[in-house]
Specification:
The chain is mainly α and about 210 residues long. The protein has one domain. The chain is built from 9 helices and 4 strands; from the N terminus they run H-H-H-E-E-H-H-H-E-E-H-H-H. It has a two-stranded antiparallel ribbon with strand order 1-2. It has a two-stranded antiparallel ribbon with strand order 3-4. Strand 3 and strand 4 form a beta hairpin. Helix 1 runs parallel beside helix 7 and helix 5 runs antiparallel to helix 6. The radius of gyration is 17 Å and the shape is globular. The two termini are about 35 Å apart.
Length: about 210
Amino acid sequence: MFIGHFAVGLAGRRLAPAASLAVWFLAVQLLDVLWPFFILSGLEQVQIDPGNTAFTPLDFTSHPISHSLVGALVWATLFAGGWMLLRGRSSAAWLLFVGVVSHWLLDVVSHRPDVPVLPDGPYLGLGLWNSVALTLTVEIAMFAAAIVFYARARRPRLSFWLLIALLFVFYLGSAFGPPPPDVKTLGWTAIAGFFIIVPWAWWADRARPVRT
């Protein structure tokens, strides 16, 4: 998933407002933030294989560090623990922990059986990506519902709506654009995307009066 993960972040922002939207976006996408560094370093592997699934040309051949359930639990613990150290004891830390792990759960829904539980398997995947129409329906519905849920509690700025538009453009590009030319380009493009999205989320989510 892509915007499905961000939908969880938008919902989390309302449920745990102590953490900013930027923090929430980083939490729900933490596994994908780490993943390009691992593939660029050779610690994890991905192949560009158009037709691997109907929705994505990527064949996730090995990603046990970033995307196994064990890995997700470790990264979630570190992320939530870091939040508690920086902000003190906070119930938001537990929700951030769930936000990180939610990435693994949603990946199980969307991937074919290539998402590891332990680093060496077993592998899970319900295969939502085998249908473009179903993938678009599920993710866009999640994203739209999360936007409404977020906006009903806050007065979004224009910068927020521009961020939403950017995420949707990125999503359509990944769904219908050409496959990346090589793994290196894929990794650096993913890193660059997060360096845009996370700071923009902080900027778009700056203090606004909360609706009552």
